[in-house]
Each structure stands twice: as C-alpha cells, then as structure tokens.
Amino acid sequence: MTWIDYVVVAVYFIVMIAIGLWAMGRVKGQEDYFMGGRGFGKLLQTFAAFGAGTGAHEPIQVGRTGWTSGLSGVWSALMWLFVTPVYWITAVWYRRMRHLTLGDWFVERYESKALGAAYAVFAIIFYMFYLSTMLSAIAKFAVPLMGLDEIAGLDLKYVLIPGLAAIVIVYGVLGGLTAAYWTDLIQGIFIILLSVLLIPYGLWALVKEFGDPSTQGFMDGFTIMHERVSSDYFSLFAGPSAGEFPLQYIVALTLLALVGIVVQPHFIATGGGSAKSENEARIGLVVGNFLKRLCTVGWAITALIALALLAGRPELAVDPDLVWGIAAREILGPLNLGLVGLMLACLMAAMMSSADTYMIVSSALITRNLYAAYVNPSATDRESVKVARVTGLAIIVGASIVAITMADVFAQFTFAIELPILFAAPFWIGMFWRRANGTAVWITIAFSALFFFILPLVIPMVSPEMRTDPAWTTTTNRIVKSIKRTATPADVARHEAWVEAMEQAKDDETMRQKIGAEPPRCEVGDQIEVVLISGDTSIFWSGGVKPVGEESLQMISTVQDGAASILTQRRTGQLQGEGTFKLDFVLYHYIGIDLANVSKATLETLRLPTRVLLPFLVLIVASFLTPRTSESVLDRYYAKMKTEVDPDPETDRRNLEESYSNPKRFEDRRLFPGTDIEALRPRKSDVYGFAISVAVCFVVIALLVWLAGIGS
Question: Signal sequence span per UniProt (predicted)?
C-alpha cells in the first residue's frame, strides 16, 4: 500500500464516525436506538439486510474454496441461495412481532422472562464468536495488502483488530441502528465494489501477462483463463476435489441454514422488524440477500481469474486463504490509484456493516432481557439507552478478544453457526403450534445443549481411553482417484510454486506438511496423472484422528471408471481421536449403518437428521407431557401475529386493540380451524413473491454458469 491507499482508508473511517455523530442527535428513546424509530424504507432495509448478511470472511472463503475446488467452491457461500425465498415469508413475522428483541418474543410467546434472559446469553456468545471470525479474517488478509505483518513490533492483528473495533464502537454506540443502517448503505456500495473490482482488472492482467495487449481486449482474458486452467475447474457441481460440494451436501447445508437462520438475533431488525411496513420488510430482506448472492457470483469469477493468474505463487501453495489479498495486491497495486486501499476499505466495510448491527441488537437484548428484566425493571428510556451503549461496547471488545486469542477461524465460525440449534425448534414450532409451552422449551434447550455441546466435550474427559479405542477411532476409507488429462499452464505453474514453497520451508516440518503432496511435474501439453485423495475422515471425532506409532494402508479395492482409476484403502494401526466426540454419530453406529465408504460431504449431510429432527421431536413430545401456556396469552399472541402492520403507529395500535378484543376475527383465514395449528392460508402476494424468489435463484445460477463459460 502507498500513501494514497492509506488516505482512502482514512477518509472511509472519518465518514463512518461522522454518520455516528449525526445519528446520535436523532436518538430520543429505546425504539429510536434499537429500531431507528421503525421508519426505514425499502432502500435502507435492503442495504441493512445486505450489509448485515455479508461478512468479511465470505469473499475470502470463496477465494480459498475456488482455489482448491474450482467453480464448485462457490457453494461454501452460495449455500444460502435457496434459503432466500423463505425470507419473503419470515420478514412478515418479524414485523408483526412489534418487539425490540427476539428475547421479547420468547418472553411473550412462552410467558417466561427467564427464556428471554437465556436467549440474551445465547446472543452474547453467538456474536462474540461470529464477529471474531470477521475480525480475524480482516487481520489475516490485510497482511498481503499492506505488505507487512507487524506494526511497531506488534503482530498486525494486535493493532488492526482493536482499531477496527474502536471505529465500530464509536459510530455504532453513538448513533444506534440509524447510524448502523446509513453506514450499511455506504458500506453496501463498497461491498459491491469489492465483488466486481478485481474482475475487469484481473482479466486485463491475464491479457498483459499471457496474451497480446496490442491486439486483445480485457474480454479476451476469459479465453486465456480457460486456456490456462483445466476444464474440470469450471464445473458447478463437481470439481477437482471430487465432490467437496455434491448435491446432497448442498441440500443439507440449505436445510440446516434455514432452520437456524431465523433465530440469529439480528433478524429482528434486518429481517423486517425495523421497516415501515410489511412490504418494506419483505422487499428489503429478499432484495438485500439476492444482492449478496450476486456478489457471490463476482467472488467466484474472481477466484477463477486468480487460479489462472497466480498459480505460480508459492505463498498460495502454503495457504490458499491468501488468494484474495494477493490477487488485490498484484492486480491493483501496480496501478497506484488508491485501489488497494479501496479494496481494504471494502473488506473492512463487509465486516463493519455486520458488526454495527450485531452490536446494537446484542445491546438491546442485554438491556431489555437482562437489565430491565432483573436489575432495574423501572429503568427509564434514557437510562436504558445509556446501558445499551455500554453493553454494545462490551460485545465488540469480547469479539476482539476471541479474535486475538483464538487462532482457528474455522472453529470460531463453526461454533457460532451451530449455536442456533438451541432455540430453532422453539421458534419454528412456537410460531404455529399452540400446544408448545415454556416447560417443554426448557427441556428442549437442555437436551440440545447437553447432546450437541456439553457431552461431546465432557465424555472424552471422563473416559479418555475412548480417544484410542478402535471402535471410536474408525475413519472412512481413503479414496485415491487418478485421472489422466492434458497439462495446462496452471499445472506447470503449480508445480513450480510447490518446489519454491518446499525450498522456503525446508527447515519447517509443520509448514512442509501444510504444503501437501507434490503436483505432477510437467510441460504444457503433456499427459499427466492427477491424483485426488479424499475420504480418510474421522467418523466420531471433530478434530480428526492422528496415528500413534506406526501406521499403514490396507488395500480394499481397485476400480477403473472410464479414464479414472479409483483405489480404495483403509488405515491400520493405533489412532487417537482429536477434538470433541460426535455423539450424534453414535446413533448411526448402534443401528448398524456402515459409514466406512461414505464421503466427507455425506458425513456432513448425515448431521442433518439429528441436528434438525431431534430438537423438534423432543419439543413436540415434551409439549404433550407438560401443561399448556394459558389460553388468554396464546389468544393475544396469535391475534397480534395475524394482524397486518399499518405504517401509521396510531392506526396500527387501533387495529391491534380490535384483534385483542376479538381473537377469533381471523378464524376464516386459518388453514386448520378448530385445531392447535395456527397457520393461515397464504395470500396471493405470499405465493407470487415466493415463486418469483425461487425463479431468481435459478437466474443467479444461470448467470454464474454463463459467466464462467465465457471464452471456453
């Protein structure tokens, strides 16, 4: 980075702080601070949903999986695509709740202040880990952009993470959700720039490096990209990693995401709760998330360009996570136009647009569901806003500490994504079924916490011998697939990069293991044998298994499948399990399902039945065995959820009073009148909006395939 890049970043920070100071004067009470007075229209709702839903780790993640898996790696972020149409329905729920937090919803629906407090605690832990992944990603990927890994003798992350946290704290704590939404509008534009900026410059870099700039334009970069990279890297559902993202895995990821996303705490705001009306809520949430899906298309194309341009980089042979940063440095740096600084600002925007909203939502939960519920129930609006500003600061500080002290970004992200299992079933079932009650919810939360989080950690502590027991250290079979094809320039460059990386790491055994096996040594046009190794995945241990002493591989079978030769092997020797114990897979073990021949993706898919179905089953059974919630509370709650929101607060209040006085006024619209199921018949707007959203999903996929196919 040069001085002009640092100027770009500094100007960006100054604008963010100025917006916070401006919004501070608009905060009069809790609804202003936590929900911006519920006055946001389509534009701000769209960019709020877009900004809060787009993290700094995602373009980096697509860069990495694109480098290792080709176009199919886009599913590491595009797995949310088919969840998006459901947002057309759920946005209405969040607006009709008329609450400031999802904790308030649990209090109302289940008559339990304690459930609201438990949800607030969940939100604190969730955001500390979820935000920490973004802070860690920024720190890691700023290294190649800034050209340094320390400042004043300190590791870069010890300077950058607190600095970013301080900026978010200043404008978010001062201005509340209004500041967050206006900064999200600006940051959303930056994220879109981030998603497309590298494509034209990257294509032109390909032409300058490997083509003839005097006769070729930047669009010829697509042709060069296909000439340099093997065709198997351009398949959307199968790539060089031989099924890292097969169809069943994509479906499982979509369902898991759908079940858990609805209870992520920020959805009460960005999901529609802060909008003027239901229409603004729906359009903002759906359009904002489709904007993100389109940006994901840009990230995928950028990853393919990087594959063609940077295959010879030894740094990427060691750590593919650096793809995005190195691509930005090598493509934009020589122009000296401040574009490297702009790219860094864009990555910061992707993080900060999420962090500000998460901070406000977390502070709302702490203020309303902990402080006002248990510490000071008579707190005024002014006092509550003061508490919110202090607690919002604490969330960002906590996330910064996690980011600095935890080195495993993926572990932070995985833990955060799995936490919503605790509250997902109570939300979905409570939304539609009157029989669900607070006692049953506590039983479900206790079961989920024990089964998915506590026992997997405690069991190996109580019985450490399990880590070396052959019954629990089994792995899937190792599959060695050999494919013969013509070598491309990228294959030649990859081997050269591997040789250079191994030379640089000759005295570092850990680094040499990270680099992996030697790619084929070749010249362009040679017939090479590409060896793809998959399987050999621990079935019962989250951290995999490692050998204890000598180990060997036992041959199982050899199969010829067209041009590919497939060798199946099994590890022998004593192994030791690492990480936590996958208790849910014990169920498959005892019902006799042999998992030895399944792929890693199938193992991940098999988490779906236990993590989705078991909490729902426990809640349903427990609800039948425990007392109902009082009918008057249920009548009032479901009457409210059926009453359409009017943008005018006074009219909306009168409509609600009418519904409360006559809870049966919507009986003729129920799908199952006279039962405990409170689902309404869908309106035309529900059906048409959902159908159009599904169609747009396929348009996004078609656009991605078309762009990737240009020049082939």
Answer: none
| CA–CA dist 352, 49 (Å, integer) | 13
Q: Between 516 and 310, whose confidence is greater?
A: 310
pLDDT, tens only, 323-348: 877 887 888 777 777 777 777 777 77
Short-list 164, 154, 158, CA closest to 13: 164
In this structure, the strands spanning 154-155 and 150-151 are: antiparallel
Angle 101-77-297 (CA atoms, 0-180°, nearest 5)? 120
3-state class of 346 per DSSP? helix
d(Cα 528, Cα 516) in Å, to the nearest integer?
Answer: 18
Closest listed residue to residue 253, CA positions, set 604, 616, 696: 604
Q: Where are the alpha helices (DSSP H) in 406-471?
A: 409-418, 421-432, 438-449, 455-462
Closest CA to 683 of 88, 273, 46, 84: 88
Please say if the pLDDT value at position 36 is more than 60: no
**Residues 204, 392: Cα–Cα separation, whole Å:** 44
Residue 309 tokens, joined: 């341009």
DSSP secondary structure letters along 218-247: TTHHHHHHHHHS-GGGG-SS--TTSSSS-H
φ, ψ dihedrals at 158, nearest 5° = -70, -15
Output the six-digit token pair for 28.
Answer: 């009069």
Strand order in the sheet with 527-535: 527-535, 478-486, 564-572, 552-561
Beta-carbon count within 10 A of 110 CB: 23
The torsion of the CA quartet 94, 43, 297, 236, rounded to 10 degrees, works out to 30
Report whether pLDDT(413) > 70: no
Q: Quick one: tokens of 524?
A: 């362009």
Q: What is the pLDDT of residues 102-154, one digit of tens each?
A: 999 999 999 999 999 999 999 888 888 877 777 777 776 676 666 666 666 66
Q: How far is CA 333 from the centre of its chain?
A: 29
Is 465 in contact with 438 (CB distance < 8 Å)?
A: no
3-state helix, strand, coil in the chain (%, to 5): 70, 10, 25
Q: Give the torsion sign (CA, 470, 472, 477, 478).
A: negative
Determine how β-strand 564-572 pairs with β-strand 478-486: antiparallel
* Those residues with Cβ within 8 angstroms of residue 467's Cβ, 6 or more apart along the chain or in another chain: 460, 473, 541, 576, 577, 578
Q: CB of 409 within 8 A of CB of 136?
A: yes
Does the predicted model carry a pTM greater than 0.90? no
Residue 572: CB atoms within 10 Å: 12
Q: Which residues lie below 8 Å from residue 667, measured CB to CB, with a gap of 6+? A: 673
List of long-range contacts for 459-467, beta carbons under 8 Å, 24+ apart? 459/581, 459/583, 460/577, 460/580, 460/581, 466/577, 466/581, 467/541, 467/576, 467/577, 467/578
Amino acid code (one letter) for 413: F
Q: Shortest CA distance to 323 belongs to which of 69, 534, 700, 511?
A: 69
Cα 290 from Cα 285, distance rounded (Å): 9
Task: Convert the pLDDT of each residue in 604-629 to its tens digit.
Answer: 778 878 888 899 999 999 999 999 98
Task: Check residue 248 and give its pLDDT.
Answer: 75
Q: Which residues contact 605 (CB under 8 A, 6 or more apart)?
A: 248, 249, 251, 252
Q: Give residue 488's identity as a one-letter amino acid code.
A: T
Residue 478: its H or E element: strand 478-486
